[in-house]
């Protein structure tokens, strides 16, 4: 019998401006899965709590945890074994608040969190992998991201970005009225 559980989870209200949602996927691992991932314009932070996926497009396995930026093309993925993954989908402007590297460095790439030279993400990977279940893992992720926001100097840039987006949206509403 084949089992697949897919969930979309809203972020903590504190993170609403940065994160669109989380999604989780768990499979029983009996049958291989093939998926084509299309570009969405959003960066993702991925944690594989089960087996990792294999990128047929890149001819390599995905890291246990990684950040992927904006992609210009689709990616074909396949799996063998049990999947249990958590994906954080950032708003197009949201990921920059959480990473020291410019987000442009992640375009068309899957960069392992271990390659970010940021101990916070290495520690987070260990906590997420050892969490008892996905809701506990997501709670740990949110705690880490909220702490990162509190310790960040990006608040000024975020407020400027939101103000600019609101002005554009207001202008578009005025034109459409």
Short description:
With 177 residues, this protein is of the alpha+beta class.
- Give the rounded overall mean pLDDT: 87
Strand order of the largest sheet: 1-2-9-4-7-10
* Beta-strand segment tally: 10
Name the beta content range. Answer: 25-35%
Q: Tell me, briefly, the overall form.
A: globular
Structural class: alpha+beta
Q: Radius of gyration in whole Å, from Cα?
A: 17 Å
Can you tell me the residue ranges where pLDDT is under 50 for at least 5 consecutive residues?
Answer: none
Distance between the termini: 53 Å
**Portion of residues in helices?**
25-40%
So how many helices? Answer: 3
Order of helices and strands: EEEEEEEEEEHHH
Largest sheet: 6 strands, antiparallel
SSE topology sketch:
Layout: E1 4-9, E2 19-27, E3 33-37, E4 44-48, E5 54-55, E6 60-61, E7 65-68, E8 75-79, E9 84-90, E10 110-112, H1 119-130, H2 134-150, H3 155-176
Antiparallel strand pairs: 1-2, 2-9, 3-8, 4-7, 4-9, 5-6, 5-8, 7-10
Helix pairs in contact: 1-2
């Amino acid at each position: 019998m084949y089992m697949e559980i897919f969930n979309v989870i809203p972020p903590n209200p504190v993170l609403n401006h940065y994160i669109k949602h989380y999604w989780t996927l768990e499979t029983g691992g009996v049958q291989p899965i093939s998926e084509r991932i299309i570009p969405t314009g959003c960066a993702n932070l991925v944690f594989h709590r089960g087996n990792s996926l294999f990128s047929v497009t890149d001819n390599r396995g995905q890291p246990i945890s990684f950040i992927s930026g904006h992609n210009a093309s689709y990616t074909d993925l396949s799996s063998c074994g049990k999947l249990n993954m958590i994906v954080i989908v950032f708003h197009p402007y949201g990921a920059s608040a959480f990473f020291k590297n410019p987000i442009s460095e992640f375009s068309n790439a899957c960069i392992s969190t271990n390659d970010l030279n940021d101990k916070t993400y290495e520690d987070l990977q260990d906590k997420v992998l050892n969490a008892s279940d996905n809701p506990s893992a997501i709670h740990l992720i949110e705690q880490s991201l909220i702490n990162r926001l509190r310790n960040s100097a990006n608040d000024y840039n975020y407020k400027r970005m939101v103000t600019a987006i609101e002005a554009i949206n207001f202008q578009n509403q005025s034109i459409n009225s």
